[in-house]
Amino acid sequence: MLGFRFTLSQPGQRSAWTDGSLEWLWSACEREGLPVGLMPSGANVAALGKIAAAHPGLRLIVDHLGRGGAAGGLRDDAAFADLDDLLALARLPNVAVKLSALPAYSSHPYPWRNLHGYVRRIVETFGAERSEEHTSELQSQSTISYAVFCLKK
């Protein structure tokens, strides 16, 4: 086992962000050194921060830039209106961000130039070492690292 990935986005799962029902899992993963990828959005970004603070040895990866993926339904500037909530998690050294699902957040064509500023802020705030590129959406379009691409100016 290398780690876990959960969305916790279905109606019967959403309470798990705050109700303590997964405390056993966070503790076990922290103890065993297993990273956990989660897909928070909205208020769940702060909930992920509370989990990270309570478990400083647990590596947490924020999936899809903390925007909720395609299910979030927001695009362009509206998708990043609460970006500061995500950036606040950078104070927690056990939190990383996966740079993924960019096409879901932009009405513009590749290379989604309207999102470059947001990606740049995330990488600059979390640092390159805690900004993880997810390349599936780029495989057919480019071989350059999207994070590096956005930081070039």
Q: What is the number of E strands?
A: 5
> Largest beta sheet: what is the strand line-up?
1-2-3-4-5
C-alpha Rg, in Å? 15 Å
The DSSP helix count reads 6
| Low-confidence runs | 138-153
Largest sheet: 5 strands, parallel
Quaternary structure classification? single chain
Instruction: Spell the H/E element sequence.
Output: EHEHEHHEHEH
What class, by secondary structure content? alpha/beta
- The fraction of residues assigned to DSSP E strands is 5-15%
Tell me the span between the first and last alpha carbons. 40 Å
Shape: globular
Question: What average pLDDT do the residues reach?
Answer: 88
Q: Approximately how much helix is present in the residues?
A: 25-40%
Question: What is the strand and helix layout of this fold?
Answer:
Blueprint: E1 4-6, H1 23-32, E2 36-38, H2 43-54, E3 60-62, H3 76-79, H4 83-87, E4 95-99, H5 116-126, E5 131-133, H6 146-151
